[in-house]
Amino acid sequence: MNVARYISHKIDGGADSGSFTSSVTKIAIISIAMGLAVMVVSFAILQGFRNEIQNKIFSFGAHLQISRYDTNNSLEVAPIAGPRLVKQLHQVPEVKSTQPFAVKTAIIKTKEEVLGVVLKGISETDGLSPMRQNLQAGKFMSFPDSAASDDVLLSRKVANKLRLAVGDKALFYFIQSPPRIRQFRVSGIYSTGLDEFDDVYVIGDIRQIRELNSPAWPDSLVGGMEVMLRDFTALDTTYEHLYEHLPYDLKIDKVTEQYAQLFDWLKLLNRNVIIFLILIIFVATFNMVATIFIMILERTNMIGILKALGSTDNQIRQIFFFRGLSLTVRGMLIGNVIAVGFCAVQYYFHLIPLDPENYYMDRVPISWDPRMLLLLNVATFGASLLAVLIPTYLIARIKPVVAIKFD
């Protein structure tokens, strides 16, 4: 039988519920529980927020975007051969899917409003478009085999400005030589929450843009290619590989460079949260140090008697170590229950809303990451045990004769 653990258990079970030590012990447990709960919830929200923002960006711009070099700084660039490029891209193991696209500037005119937009034509020949996740009303446009679809998706902001709803029709004026007019039907309303997209883009069938160009593009030509990777962390290495192997007249852009301001903002947010979590761990461990100090002072008589009976300093340290270990484990169990419970409630019931105008989403997001949960628990456990060990070295300075007389 481990004597130190036995004595620690007796001290734990025999503590007077109304004593000062009992109150301090409860504060230590609450401190660890709340500290761990706040850290887990903070990381879950931060990761969820980052994932939501990134998914919105990826749904519109993918991980990589390939197009032809152009010196006129125009949205409408020279076309590239789609099938040959797709074949080359799918030979790269990191590439998950590709989506051809083409863009064309237009002016939408209704009975009451006029608005300049960019019509982005897409295709679903290589799988469903990630833009489907942003659909809020209506249905996603269809892609018939016989002809180009007349359906378009408007953002919520554009639809509100033009006072258009699902099922309405609007005239699109394309300023080119010769000028052209097309009537499109609003099949759905989307919203990413990101002004960079919602203020400008209308989603349509790429075949419409092919037909509008003069001369018309054949089906083999596209304005560019969006590339989704299997793992976003492989972005830089895949970019370098494609940069070296693509034809010289094609350029490749990373999403982190196209929307650098958004990704820099996410990095800054991540840095602030890490500083905040370090402060929480410091406060929790400081409370544990203070608690063990108080326990040692209150048990000075017991320490003196144990030393007089022949106990070594290490044996007595073990008593308070096991005491601190017990408090840490209890606090962590309570903290995990609180954190996981809160995250589950928010994840399934969306109790805490957000203003989409400021936060790009309508609710507090939650991301489940077992590895991060484990890492936070290990960090809290390690910091708490270190905090327990520090004050136990005071025991070596306690003299048996003085300690027995201590009151």
From TrEMBL:
Domain ABC3 transporter permease C-terminal span(s) in chain numbering: 274-400
Membrane among keywords: yes
Bilayer topology reads: Multi-pass membrane protein
Q: Membrane-crossing residues? A: 27-49, 273-297, 333-352, 372-396
GO terms, biological process: lipoprotein localization to outer membrane
Per the record, GO CC terms? Answer: plasma membrane protein complex
Q: Which domain of life is it from?
A: Bacteria
The protein, known as: ABC transporter permease
Q: Which organism is it from?
A: Hymenobacter montanus
Identify the taxonomic lineage of the organism of origin: Bacteria, Pseudomonadati, Bacteroidota, Cytophagia, Cytophagales
